[in-house]
Structure formats: structure tokens, C-alpha cells
């Protein structure tokens, strides 16, 4: 029987509650699909600062590197926002991404028929929408050197090299091959040199994928089109900061941020986490929606462990639960038959499997 | 009787048609308000490339500098997209902004009750929405040095100095004083040094405006909040590239891009233009919506010529025309009583004044 080593980072705020539910569901599906999962917990973010004095202990890096995949909750909170930059939870997160070499952040934005009213966008605009945002995650202006702030003048550098663009581009094209075979590359090539290289490289790369249609869009227009007509998109590929902005815009197409998973993959251990934050205001109240984390666990099965059937089972269970009218508090006003707390929702999804 | 010198840049595509209507309305309102306007036309963009070989002739720069304000249509089109970067219409536009020192780009996004259905967002989410986006226009990554692309590695620099941040911040606070007294400054201070300086400087500046409430938002969250709950915003102030993206997102809140004006103001001559592009596909067909340009002319009266009454008259006339059910083709499906062509819409607004 196959056995996988899963590193678990529960993090801060609602992190622990939602990760527990994902583990519950993973255990249920693993029994059904004949594999086992060994979990090991590691510290990161605020709790790591409080416990070890550092947002990303070396033990965490080593432990995650030694695992097959990492299931991640959420980190951060006001409590740690006033610390010096190098000690903040966010700094730990960026360092973690870099250490894991996770250059590709995949964020699916899928509109469930059952929750078509949960968006602020009109149902007819979003129904059937299925977008995959592929965001470059360890380059661009987030990591570019030089960077400085002397209190009078401050700057950052947005930089990409051709190999960096090729590897993220490949991810996008490969994903498109399994989907609707359309890639929209987003840049600001009418203004930025770095975007011109991005665009030229995507054009070159597209020759290796003759079946995929590549289009280009300026980032301002892409932000607009995501609101105007999101259904026009299949795969969107873009750089780090543009992807940060556009994937959040895409999440609003779906509306319910409690449903959105993500995968960060690259050369080493991949990280699976909900796109929502640690929501300290509702931590410990048992009302957090665990579905985004459970869907992230499904992505883990699909992309890191190649347990496709198990991933399908989880996704189908979630669809069934939503269809049968079960909701957590955040979605209570959208055709709810019964409103469940965090644990009950986890139990139910596990049971549906 | 007061007399103002107006430089006019009609540009490419639908530019000439829509600017003609704005001039028609300006002439009508100037008679009523006892001032005169002298117009002088200058070339820019594609038409300037075709006529003079350069997207921004020196004569245009000199002429606009010598005027009280500049009324601008739109530039660009596929025809010129393959020219070398330094000869493209966009390059001319950026150079033009720099020459005019227009550091503040003001983009109001106001939802008209009559067109509350024209957005893809639900009416209840946008009704009554009135946002002013204040975008820094001649700094940041658009103009930062160094910048290069050697075909293997490419980079741009996002840079701001304190004085640059202060002058755009002042614009935002001054505008907020005349509105709901709330400024939301948008940055990515959790990742970027340049954003940290931006945030610190805004905090400092806010001490000079004790009546105004300053808040901060990360750019990814701001993009999300503009879709989730746009009514929470009064004035948004942000840097060049973030403003480029967010103002386009904000325009989708309003929905009808044919209604959105803008002002670019600074030390020298201010520029007034619709936010939409040159729409070559419908140029010369007489179906373009001139309202965004006419509203830009109203902004010109308000901000550059201090003819407040005339500005109010134009804005009221437009509201009345919309209320009475007159629409151009782009808005034909939103409670239209009668659909007018470009000239007829200009005539009607002029007549309502
Ligand atoms: C917390 C922050 C540094 C992070 C980012 O900007 O990448 C977050 O917004 C995200 O999208 O994961
Ligand atoms: C055409 C382009 C250079 C320009 C910009 O990015 O500033 C446009 O998008 C705008 O917003 O006015």
C-alpha cells in the first residue's frame, strides 16, 4: 500500500481549524483508495514567531523538503504586523516559497451552479465560468534586486529572465492542453521592457504547443475583462504582482472566497493552501468554511500524489454537499438548507466520500 | 469677457468624432456662461506618425504648453503597433504626460441611477457608488530607471521619492476634503520597499488633514474590494501601475466605459480625456458615445478654468438626457427610449444646456 509523507503547517487564526477538517477528509478518502498518509506538523508565521522567535524556522524548511507535499492553512494577524520587516509572517511566507522553489501558483476559479448567486457579479455573467490563473510566484518584483528604502527614495526591481518565463509558460500550456486549450498571457508590454521579454518568450514557447491558442492582454484590460466577461478565459498566465492582483479579482468572480484552493508547485515540495487569509476575527469560533482547504487537499492528491481518483472523490463530495443545501455561515444566505459549523461540514464531506 | 485658449488633440479612431461633440457642447455652455474658448488643433499618436513621422511632434508640446487646458480624444490603433517602441503612439502619450508634468490622473467612477443595470455587477452592489481614483501618472515603474531588455534578462524599476508621493497625496486629500473625507491609499507595503515609503509618507501627510480619514489597503485586496463592495470607497490614491489596473477595475463598476472621463493635472497644462480608447473598429460609423469626452470637457471647466457653473450645467444636461431615455448604441439595451448617433447625442446635450 502506498504511503505518503505530508508536512502540515496549520499556521495562525482559523488555520488550525480548517486544516483539521482537510485531514479528516483526506483520511476518509485514503481508506477508500488504498493509500496511507503520514502527517508531520511544522510551525510557520505568527505561531512560529511566538514559539521560536522566527517566522520560518529551519526545521520547517527541512521537514517540508523531506515530505511529498505540504498542506498549509493560513498565517499572519495584526499582532505581528508591527514587527520589523524581516520578522513578519509575510517575510517568512515569501522565503518559504523561495526555499521550496514553487514558481507556479495555480488558482482555479470555478463557479459552482449551486452558488451562482454568491458573487456580486450577475449570475448570467459568471455561470459556468472555469478559469485557471497561473501566477509566477518566486520572481518578478517580489524578489528582484536591487531594492532599497532610505526614507527619501525607495525602489524595487521587476525582473524576469527567459528561463524563468519559459518554465512558468510551460506550466500554463501544459494545463491548457488538459482544458480548453487557450492561454491568455497578461503583461504590460506597451510600457515595460520586462513585459516585452515576457510576451516575446511566450510567443516563442507557443510554437511548441501548436494545439493551444495563445493570446495576450494588457494587465489593465485583463482586470477589466475579468469583471466584464470572465467566461472568455481558460488559462491566464502572468507574473508575480500582476498574478497577485488578478487572482484576487478572479476570486470575486466566484464570490465565495471560502471555496477557493490553490497549489504552489515547482522543483521541490509543492504547497497546497486556501487563498483566503487567517481571519483572526473568527478564529476559534467554529464558523470558518473548511472547503477551500479541503479542495486544496484535493489538488494535492491530484498534482503531487497523482491520486486522481481520490481527488475526484473529494471534489464530487463537495459538489454533492453544496447541491444538497449544506452551507457554512459565510454562505448561509445562498440557498442554504442547513447551516453547519466547521467540524460538521468536515464530517459531512468525509461521510459523503 | 473671459477668453480661454484650449489646445485640442483629436487623435486616432473615434477621437475626432467625439471631440467634435465635446466642442459643440462647450460652445453651447460658454455662450450661456459668458466666456469664450479659442481652440487650436495639434497632432498626436498615429495620425502624427503618419503626418510627421513622430508620435509627439515638438509643435504639439509647445502648443499645449501655451494653452490653458488640453482636450484630448484618443490615440493608437493596430496599424502602428508593430513600429519600434520609441515610435509607438503609447510612447508619445507617456512622453506627453511627462512634458506636461501631469502627475495626478483623476478618474471619477460614478454610477448613474438611470444606468444602474449597465454594469455586470448587481445593481444593489453599485447603486449610489461615487469613487474618485487618484493615480500617480509620471513616476513609478512607468518611468523608473534603470530599465533594459537584452533578450535574456529584462527589468524595470519601480521608484518613488518622498516629494513625488507628497504631491500626489495632497491632491487626494484636497479632493477628499470636498467629498466624503475618506482617502484609501493602495500599495503592497507587505512586500515592496517602495510601497513602505509610500505608506509612511501618506501617514505623515495625513497629519495635515485631520478631518480626513486615511486608510491603507494592499493592492490585491483593493482589486477584490472594488468588486465585492465598491461603495466602501470615497477617494482611492495609488501609484502609476496599480492605478492603471484599479481605475480600469473601477470603470467596470460603472459598466459603461463610454461614460467615464478623466483629468490629468499637474504643474503645467492639464489634459482632459475619456478613459476609453480609440476604438478603430467603430471609427467613422457615427455610433461612438461622446459622453465620456463631454464629461471630460466638464472636468476641464471645473478644474482648469474654474468655470464651475458651466461644468455643472454640462453634467446636469447629461443626467437629464440619460433620464429622458436617450442612449447611444453602446447603451441601447439599458432602458433606452431612443437611440441616437454620435452627432445627435452631442446636439441634444448642447440643446439641453
Ligand atoms: C501575504 C502576501 C505576501 C501574499 C502575496 O502577495 O503573494 C498573498 O497576497 C498571496 O497572494 O498569497
Ligand atoms: C496606453 C497606456 C500606456 C496607458 C497607461 O498604461 O497609462 C493607458 O492604459 C491609460 O491608462 O491611460
From TrEMBL, chains A, B:
Q: Which reaction does it catalyse?
A: (2R,3S)-3-isopropylmalate + NAD(+) = 4-methyl-2-oxopentanoate + CO2 + NADH
Q: What top-level class of enzyme does the UniProt entry assign?
A: oxidoreductase
- This entry's Enzyme Commission designation comes to 1.1.1.85
The record lists Mg(2+) as bound by: 220, 244, 248
Tell me the compartments it is located in.
Answer: Cytoplasm
Cite the entry's keywords alphabetically.
Amino-acid biosynthesis, Branched-chain amino acid biosynthesis, Cytoplasm, Leucine biosynthesis, Magnesium, Manganese, Metal-binding, NAD, Oxidoreductase
Q: Name one GO cellular component term.
A: cytosol
The protein's GO terms of the molecular function aspect are: 3-isopropylmalate dehydrogenase activity; magnesium ion binding; NAD binding
Residues with site note (Important for catalysis): 142, 188
Major location category of this protein: cytoplasm
The reply to whether Signal figures as a keyword in the UniProt entry is no
Q: How is the cofactor bound?
A: Binds 1 Mg(2+) or Mn(2+) ion per subunit.
Entry-linked InterPro entries: IsoCit/isopropylmalate_DH_CS, IsoPropMal-DH-like_dom, Isopropylmalate_DH
Annotated residues for binding of NAD(+): 77-90, 277-289
Gene Ontology BP, a term: L-leucine biosynthetic process
Positions of substrate binding: 97, 107, 135, 220
The pathway where this protein functions is: Amino-acid biosynthesis; L-leucine biosynthesis; L-leucine from 3-methyl-2-oxobutanoate: step 3/4
What domain of life does the UniProt record list for this protein's source? Bacteria
Q: Which cofactor does it need?
A: Mn(2+); Mg(2+)
Q: Where is the Isopropylmalate dehydrogenase-like domain?
A: 5-349
Q: Which family does it belong to?
A: Belongs to the isocitrate and isopropylmalate dehydrogenases family. LeuB type 1 subfamily.
State the function annotated in the UniProt record. Answer: Catalyzes the oxidation of 3-carboxy-2-hydroxy-4-methylpentanoate (3-isopropylmalate) to 3-carboxy-4-methyl-2-oxopentanoate. The product decarboxylates to 4-methyl-2 oxopentanoate.
Question: Subunit structure of this entry?
Answer: Homodimer.
Q: What is this protein called?
A: 3-isopropylmalate dehydrogenase
Amino acid at each position: 500500500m502506498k504511503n505518503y509523507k505530508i508536512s502540515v503547517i496549520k499556521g495562525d487564526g482559523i488555520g488550525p481549524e480548517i486544516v483539521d477538517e482537510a485531514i479528516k477528509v483526506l483520511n476518509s478518502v485514503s481508506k477508500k483508495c488504498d493509500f496511507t498518509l503520514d502527517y508531520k506538523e511544522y510551525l510557520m508565521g505568527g505561531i512560529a514567531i511566538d514559539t521560536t522567535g522566527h517566522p520560518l524556522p529551519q526545521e520547517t524548511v527541512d521537514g517540508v523538503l523531506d515530505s511529498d507535499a505540504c498542506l498549509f492553512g493560513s498565517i499572519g494577524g495584526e499582532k505581528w504586523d508591527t514587527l520589523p520587516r524581516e520578522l513578519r509572517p509575510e517575510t517568512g511566507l515569501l522565503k518559504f516559497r523561495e526555499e521550496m522553489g514553487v514558481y507556479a501558483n495555480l488558482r482555479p476559479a470555478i463557479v459552482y451552479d449551486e452558488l451562482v448567486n454568491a458573487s456580486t457579479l450577475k449570475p448570467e455573467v459568471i455561470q459556468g465560468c472555469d478559469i485557471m490563473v497561473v501566477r509566477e510566484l518566486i520572481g518578478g518584483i517580489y524578489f528582484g534586486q536591487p531594492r532599497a528604502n532610505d526614507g527619501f527614495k525607495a525602489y524595487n526591481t521587476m525582473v524576469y529572465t527567459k528561463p524563468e518565463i519559459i518554465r512558468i509558460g510551460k506550466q500554463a500550456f501544459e494545463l491548457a492542453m488538459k482544458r480548453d486549450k487557450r492561454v491568455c498571457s497578461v503583461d504590460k508590454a506597451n510600457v515595460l521592457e520586462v513585459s516585452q521579454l515576457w510576451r516575446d518568450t511566450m510567443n516563442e514557447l507557443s510554437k511548441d504547443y501548436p494545439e493551444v491558442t495563445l493570446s495576450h492582454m494588457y494587465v489593465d484590460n485583463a482586470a477589466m475583462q475579468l469583471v466584464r466577461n470572465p467566461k472568455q478565459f481558460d488559462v491566464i498566465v502572468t507574473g508575480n504582482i500582476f498574478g497577485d492582483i488578478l487572482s484576487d479579482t478572479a476570486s470575486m468572480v466566484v464570490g465565495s472566497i471560502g471555496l477557493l484552493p490553490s497549489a504552489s508547485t515547482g522543483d521541490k515540495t509543492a504547497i497546497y493552501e486556501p487563498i483566503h487569509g487567517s481571519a483572526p476575527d473568527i478564529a476559534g469560533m467554529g464558523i470558518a468554511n473548511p472547503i477551500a482547504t479541503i479542495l486544496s487537499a484535493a489538488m494535492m492528491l491530484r498534482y503531487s500524489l497523482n491520486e486522481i481518483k481520490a481527488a475526484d472523490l473529494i471534489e464530487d463530495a463537495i459538489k454533492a454537499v453544496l447541491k444538497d443545501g449544506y452551507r457554512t455561515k459565510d454562505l448561509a444566505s445562498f440557498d442554504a438548507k442547513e447551516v453547519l459549523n466547521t467540524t460538521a461540514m468536515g464530517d459531512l464531506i468525509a461521510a459523503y466520500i
